[in-house]
Amino acid sequence: MRQVLADTAVRERVGLLLMGLAALLLSIMNLLIKAALRDYPLMETLFFRSLFGAGFIAALQLARHKPLIGPRPRRLLLLGGLVFAGLCCYYFALGRLAMADAVILNRLAPLFVMVASGPLFGEPFRRRQGIVFAVGLLGTALILQPQLGFAPLAGLAGLASACFSGLAYIMTKQLSADHRSSQIALAIVGVSAALALPALASGFVMPSLDGWLILAGIGLTSAAGQTLTSKAFALGAPTPVAICSYSVVLFSALWGFLLFDEVQNALALTGSVLVLACLATLPTLGSATKHPEISP
Hints:
Helix content is about 75%, strand content about 0%. The protein has 14 helices and no strands.
């Protein structure tokens, strides 16, 4: 198997295949989250998502005899806090917006990373990047406009989730120099579970058997999707793998249409196309947005 993967072309095809599978799993995660939020509080859903995900990653690492904690635990805690804030905003938006709208708003994170890459990494902000950013903002406005009369707070929460995710991307880039991807992933879900736990005391709803299956499914699809995403970027060429990662929006839109009768109107659909076009362009611009390995 290792000899087969030594072929660059084969590695790239395997990377794309893994990214497509990761996108499918993450879209199923979005579906399960939306279903869970109909019956359970946001913090309870987030807690069990993180708890099951942490158990999955920890068990995998222990089986491989790998260390669970990295050399900079305080930075890992800060990263976990940023991701937790982003997840709170994302779950809030996902519970109130169409799946496609919520997912694509969250996926705007690389645009914020692109803007921050200049001062943080010394990368020049080129005219082409400015055009991409402006078109992305236009697409965002078109997505939000149809929702403003009904759920303005949900739309803003979706944007806030992208901002927090962007900050998490930047910290992940810094931590990846001396941390395993599994250590970073475990810190994220572990901190999220710990921060969500206190909220259960005031609003816990005992899940049914179906509820336990849904909550466990959220954690497992999240952990598996994140693991496959990291593997995909390790094997494949960054640009096509990054572009393929945005297929999670298409999968989520399909689930929303089939199971929740969600249909984007013309303005929101146009905005989604503009945003996806911008996101597909980002990996070619040479910024820190090439490796969006943190997913909600």
